[in-house]
Each structure stands twice: as structure tokens, then as C-alpha cells.
Amino acid sequence: MYNGARQVIRNGDVDASGSTIAANLARIELTILEACRRSGRRREEVQLIAVSKGRSVEEILAALACGLHQLGENRIEELEAKRPLVEQCAAAPVWHMIGHVQSRKAARVAAAGILVHSVDSVRLAERLDRQGAELGQAVRVLLQVNVSGEASKQGLDAATPAEIQQLLSDLDRVVALPHLQIEGLMTMAPQVPDPELARPVFAGLREVRDLCQERYPHTRWDTLSMGMSADYAIAIEEGATCVRVGRALFEPIWEG
Questions:
Q1: Which of 21, 55, 202, 253 has the fewest CB atoms within 10 Å, measured from its CB?
Q2: What pLDDT does 233 receive?
Q3: What's the pLDDT at 90?
Q4: What is the pTM of this model?
Q5: How far, CA to CA in Å, does 241 sit from each of 7, 46, 49, 186, 235?
């Protein structure tokens, strides 16, 4: 059993001081502003999600005190453990599920009432839809797309024209699910030495989004969740509306 309350508080070896996080946040905000300027966008078009997986409650509270209010967790056990501890000490943040969701944990994820970024298969979409029906509410989701073609990446495959056509065909089933509220797409770029090498992946997700908008005009495709600590500036230039930043925010003098 996951002993979340103890584990998340003990895991505070990195510098959790507000000054460290504030300094990192200032650098991140400047990077976001510059990326928005280069791409002709407004800062308000981009949400910054602090990836709080593996971070202590103290670190999370320090981040919230610096003005952040969006948190991303990878595991439902960790989210369930941290959420009450955080929310008894601070105004409730907006939580996101950004990690892989196992089918057997779909009920817990659906019950959390948060945006799920990582719906990576038709099967999981159908499972969450059934859970939404039992709860009497729609489950908010992003569909995870594997644009890079890496076997290690999860998601609906979209690395080739044939895969994109199959994805669109699969979406005929997904968009019809009555208790699933689709809000956009998510992808993960490969880890590469030069962040510029991730640009085709981000551009590819934007192109898939455009195809989805054409085929399913009555479904929301507003959100593009892409870009992490090493490459979020490139993702913003390619249209990201959510970036997921962890190390660059929480770790002292993190360079990426």
C-alpha cells in the first residue's frame, strides 16, 4: 500500500526554499514570455503546470506561495495522499493527472474530478466513460498522441500518415462517448540533446489537432499539452497551451 502522507513529506532533500523556487519561476516566466513574443502569442494563452510528482508537501506549498496554482501528478496514489495535506494549508490548487493511467485505477482517477492528460488508448477512454456514467458526471480528458513513433512512448500512434488515418478512425468511437469531455491533445517528445530536435513532434501534434478540429468540429480541441523542463520554449513556439515543468522549477540552478 502506498504510504503517501509519510513518503511525500520525507522526500524533501532538494532545496525547497521559497527563494529557490521563486528565482526559478522568474526564469521560467521570462522564457515563456520570450517564446510567446517570438511566436506572436499572449502570455495568457499558456498555462504553466508545476510537475509535483515526487515532491514533498513543503515544496508544493512553497511553489503555491510563489503564485503557482496548477499542479501535475503522475500517480493517483500520490495525488490522493498529497491533496488533503496541501489543501488544508493553502487555497485549493488545480490538479492534473499527467502520468499513465492503469485501467484498474480508472475509477479512482475519474473520481478525482481533474483533467486527465494521458488517455492513451480507446480502451482507457471507454473505461473512463463507464466510470463517468457511474459517477453521473463527465470525465475531462486530453488524448495522448505518440507523434515521435518511439516504442517507449504511450499514446495513440500518429507518426505516419497511415497511423494518423487510423487515429482519426479510432476517434469516431471516442468522441461519441457520452461521459467523456475531450478538451484537446497531449504528447511527450523524446529526450534529445538539443531541444530544437523536439520541434517536429510538437508541430506534428498541432497538425493532428487541426485534423481533429476539421473532422470533429463540435468537440473541443483547445488544449495542447506539450513541453517539459528541457523543451517547453520550443513547445510554446509550436502552439502549446499547457507546459509541464518540474525540474526547472524545483531543483536549484537547474539548466536545461
A1: 253
A2: 98
A3: 87
A4: 0.91
A5: 32, 4, 10, 10, 9
Whether residue 114 is contained in a domain is answered as yes
Report the pLDDT value the prediction gives residue 18, as an integer from 0 to 100.
82
Residue in this structure with the C-alpha cell 510528482, named with its chain if needed: 53
d(CA 29, CA 43) in angstroms, rounded, equals 9
| Spatial contact of 191 and 201, defined as CB atoms under 8 Å apart | no
Q: What is the C-alpha separation between 149 and 25, in angstroms, rounded?
A: 32
Question: Average pLDDT per run of 10 along the chain, which is 256 residues long?
Answer: 40 59 97 98 98 95 96 98 95 96 96 98 98 98 96 94 96 98 97 94 98 97 98 98 97 64
In a domain, 25, yes or no: yes
Separation between Cα atoms, residue 97 and residue 109, nearest integer Å: 8
Rounded Cα distance, 135 and 107, in Å: 9
> Measuring CA to CA, which residue among 100, 21, 6, 113 is closest to residue 60?
21
| Structural domain range at position 197 | 4-250
**CA–CA–CA angle 11, 27, 192 (5° rounding):** 75
Does 97 map to a domain? yes
Report the CATH number that the domain containing residue 12 is assigned in CATH: 3.20.20.10
What is the domain count for the chain? Answer: 1
Q: Which three cell numbers stand for residue 216?
A: 470533429
**74 falls within a domain:** yes
* Cα 192 from chain centroid (whole Å): 19
Looking at residue 34, its amino acid is E
